[in-house]
Amino acid sequence: MEHQQSIGQYRLIKKLGEGKLTSVYLVQKEDKLYSMRVQSKQDSDVQMCKLSQAFVKEISAFKRVKHPFIIEMVDSFIWRDEGQTARWCMVFEQAEGGDLYGRIIEKKEKASEKHAINWFAQVCLAVEHLLRVGIEPFTIMQQTIVIVGKQIEIAKIGGMGFIEEGYFGMNDVLVCPSRYYAPESFQGEHSAKIVTWSLGVVLFEIFSGGEHPFQANFDGKTYLSNLHRFEIRLNHVISGNSKELLKLLLEKDPSKRASMLQNPLVKDKIDILIKSNLLNERDEVAIKKQYSDINEHQDISQVEEEKQPQAMIRHGFEEEKLKEFIPKDKG
Known about the structure:
Pfam families: Pkinase. Keywords: ATP-binding, Kinase, Nucleotide-binding, Transferase. This is Protein kinase domain-containing protein. InterPro entries: Kinase-like_dom_sf, NEK_Ser/Thr_kinase, Prot_kinase_dom. The protein has two domains: 6-95, Phosphorylase Kinase, domain 1 (2-Layer Sandwich), CATH 3.30.200.20; 100-311, Transferase(Phosphotransferase), domain 1. The radius of gyration is 20 Å and the shape is globular. A hairpin with a 2-residue loop joins strand 3 and strand 4. It is of the alpha+beta class and 331 residues long. The chain has ten helices and ten strands. Strands 1, 2, 3, 4, 5, 6, 9 and 10 form an eight-stranded antiparallel β-sheet that branches.
């Protein structure tokens, strides 16, 4: 890939990041820039097949969801490299601000409280939409949230969680998914509350410049088994309202964990968002309708429970999508 000039119809500009499963590039088609996620070559055919299946799930999920705060997938295709290995490629609208991993953890920069809560509210709306349409809850990480726009920076969900991996940024620092796991993940539990927890970790990192809320020196090998003994490390620079929000999001008992969108601080940000000129007319209408629907529910987990039958059949569209995509590789 070092000497590769183009992939499909897209010219490679530079590498943005790399993990064991994927590499991310800035690419150009005609006069427009995009980000491209390319499937990495694996050690065995079995591993490659499993990763291809994960890409199919990810692509299918992106085809199902359209939302102002979910990154837009503009293209997907199979590309054969110089060794004739078939690799999936996904092309997205450009996220000029990169992901929060590069913005916060790599640079160790703290975001203002205003920016942090704005981004948090936007991502919460995206997550609620995913649950509502039946996408199974998944752990949110810094690299699954991207910043779109230069003057007005908007946070968007940049991944559906089917391709989850440790991620190396440009300084080769590894970020493990377990950093964002909820306490119940140790028992294998899986619910909408894990999303609430992982977003709480992300919000803390935004406030603190990449620090973990429970460990100064994060140890992914022992974190979950020892989490019950750790106390949240609330920074003194965080305001009282934000501290209370973090405490509610990072409640170890999932039954007591806060609903993300019922918090007054978050609701105020959404109200301001709707009344501002930040969104275009179509997106403003979509968010207004969504927020009206949200107010009929008291807890985001209720959405998941009501939509669980749909979430349970989320794999049903995968075979159909495979049949749809594979002929493109043959043509």
